[in-house]
Amino acid sequence: MFMWNHIFKKRSCINCKKPFIPKVGNQRVCKKCKHKVDYLRIRKWVKNNPILIKQYSKNFRETHLLEIRKKDRICKKQWRKNNLAKALLQERKWRKQNAEKHRNRTSTWKKKNKDKTNDMNRKRYLKTKGITGSHTLKEWENLKAKNNSTCKGCGKKEPEIKLTRDHIIPISKGGTDYIKNIQPMCNKCNSRKWAN
Residue 101 is part of which domain span? Predict the structure, then answer.
């Protein structure tokens, strides 16, 4: 086995002052102190070169923007989960301070996501009526796809008509809002069926 102490003599570390055998001729710190000294050197360089660091950070952010946003979303979600009360207070405070901005943002989202908005309103209405059961928008879309986007009453397809949720056992007669109790029908057929 090759022995380093045959080449270099013992030295004292400039950081902790303990004796050590260097592996390289210009080594001035022991193995334990190397990380600490390197960290301090890097911090000093960073402090002395803020413009370079800013440019590097900007370039890195531009090239890795999607990854950074994804990580940010995950971190924010996790933080919100762990600090729910604090997050709700912050949201309320922000909404109060930026009422107009919040109103505009909400209205543009509602215009872009009409299906989701209608589904949310429908669920809220059924909840106030005390109806049991619920289903997701995805389940409704899957049910329409399963029936080839065709009305169960007249047999017309979706671009020609707009399909609505029809309860097989009407809600007025104790029916639920689970997907098993729903069939796709156009407005005309749904109205004709009424509560029969």
Answer: 64-110
